Structures are given as C-alpha cells and as structure tokens.
Amino acid sequence: MNEPIIEKFVEKVTAGKSKHSDRFYEIFTARGFLLERDSSSDIVRLSKESHLDDCEFLEALQDINYKKIYNKPHFDAIEEEDKDDAARYRHAYYDNIDTRLFDIDNIKYLHELFTHVIPIDEFRLNWKRDWYGKFSQFKEVVHLPEIRVYDLEPFIARFAKAISSIGISTWSSCEGHWGTPAYVIFDRKYYRIWFHTLLNKFIKKRLDLVCNWRWLDNRCTISSPENNIMEMYLEIQEVARLIHQYRSSLINIKQHVASLLTNEHKKMNKKNLLNIFEGLFDATIDKDQSDILTG
Asked: Do residues 172 and 129 make contact, with C-beta atoms less than 8 angstroms apart?
C-alpha cells in the first residue's frame, strides 16, 4: 500500500476530528479494533467483545517498529476462550487506553500501521473449523469466538470483525492488492446466504452503495466500478460501521430465523435458500417491529 493512499484514507476517516483521542478512536477503529469512547472524559477503551490478544497487539503498536518485536503465528479465530474467567478483562486497555502513546500524527507511523500484510505461509488452520458452516453449527451458535486484529489485513479488518460480531463465520479475507478486489470467504453456504440476505434486505436499504458486491461460490468480492481503491476502502468501512451499530438487532434476527429452519432448508440450493432467508428476515422485522427500521 502506498503512502499517499494511507494519508488520504486517514484524512477521510478523521474528518472533523481535532482532538488526539478522537483521532485515535477513528484511526484504530478503522484498523479493526473494537473501541468504546466516553466523550465526557475523553477515555477510549477496548470493548469487552475484543479478543484478549488485541490488548497485547495494541501495546506493540506503540512502537513504529512493531513488526520486528511482535511476531506471532497467525490462526483462523477458532480459539475458544473462557468467558467466565474474570481475569480476562483485567487488562488496563479494557478500562482506558493512553492514546498519547501512539504517534498518530506521524505519517510514517500510519503507513506502518496500515501495511500489515498477513503471510499466508504462516496461517495456521484449526481442525475444529470442520464443524463451522455446517447446518447444525449455523443454527445453534449465536456468538462466535473473537477474531484477533493481528490476523487480519488492515483495510478489511473492521469489516471482518463486524461480520463476526453478528454471528457470521468467515475463514479468509483480503483487502485487495495491486488493484484487485477485496474479498471475504464465508464458512459454507448458510453463512454466505445469510450475509447475502443482510446485504439485500438491510445494508443496501440504508446505504447508497457504489461498489460492486459480487458472489463466486462462498466468496463475496468488493470492487469499485472505476477501480478507485479509496472508494472501495471507504465503502467497506461504512458497511462495517452500520453492521456493528445494529449488531444486537441483527444477532436477534439471525437467532430467530435460525430457530425456524428445518432439514428441508438444509437440502436447498443457494438461490432457493436466499429467497427463504429474505422472506424470514422480512417476517421477523414485521413481527417484532425491530428498531433496525427506525434506528
């Protein structure tokens, strides 16, 4: 990624923000970290939905040379954590991040922050994934294991995190390189069709999308019609922001739709299943008068 694109991207996502803490929040949210902000106190903290390793990665990111000092194996997010362990949330970053320790006014630092390429040969698959995306797993699982920011490329990280936060499982993503489209690969057809449903019935109705969102098997590719990489990255950010904003409602809707599925749906092809999912989505909205319509 070249430096001028990163500089322009940061200018866009921080537009109108002058305080250091506000700029930090926008930049690191765009980078994929799940952050919360207290506007009255200027406190920025990691959300409890964040992976524990995100704390350690944030600490490493205080150094512009973090790539030399932080080098862990990459994995595919199927790593269960003990949700009942109170010690998990004892890290200081769940309470307050000292944003002054991050040199976000230095374009060279920002260039390093947004050029974190995942080496494919180090990506470690977890055999537990065999269950992910199967019909029973799609129906039964509401909350997925958290994804580490470290395992995601910078310009797709927020999108992958947002999708995961509403119970949609993916196993690969790419921000796009050398003019190629960005993409996300979903765990089998049920997650793919459910996101396609949200794209048609929710996202496109709330956002004026300009990019092409195309499907090839279980892969969704995102590209700008004019091959404008900035347009693509900003739209990905906009969609991720929308999904995360309405994550509670979207989780509830998925849970309700999944509860109505039978073995007959398991046998359907993607086209018919998409029609069923879209119908169930509409019926759920009409039944519950969800705030998703008015929020």
From this structure: no
Asked whether 53 and 150 are in contact (CB, 8 A), the reply is yes
Give residue-wise pLDDT tens across range 175-215: 998 778 999 999 999 999 999 999 999 999 999 999 999 99
What are residue 254's phi and psi, to 5 degrees?
Answer: -60, -45
Share of the chain above pLDDT 70, in %: 89
Q: How far apart are CA 18 and CA 11, in angstroms?
A: 11
Q: For residue 188, which phi and psi values (nearest 5 degrees)?
A: 65, 180
pTM: 0.93
Burial of 123 (0-12, 13-18, 19+ CB in 10 A): middle
End-to-end CA separation in angstroms for the chain: 36
- Secondary element (H or E) of residue 74: strand 74-75
Structure token pair of residue 81:
């954590």
8 A C-beta contact, residue 221 and residue 187: no
Domain locations in the chain?
Answer: 3-288
Cβ(277)–Cβ(157) under 8 Å? Answer: no
Residue 239, judged by CB atoms within 10 A of its CB (0-12, 13-18, 19+), counts as: buried
- Residue 2: both structure tokens together: 């070249």
Residues 6+ apart with CB under 8 A from 121: none
- The whole-angstrom distance between residue 279's C-alpha and the CA centroid of its chain comes to 26
Angle at 232 between CA 21 and CA 164, to 5 degrees: 65
pLDDT at residue number 34: 96
DSSP for residue 213? E
**pLDDT tens string 251-274:** 999 999 999 999 999 989 999 999
Helix axis angle for 154-165 and 229-245, nearest 10°, is 20
Q: Minimal CA–CA distance to 278: which of 193, 156, 186?
A: 193
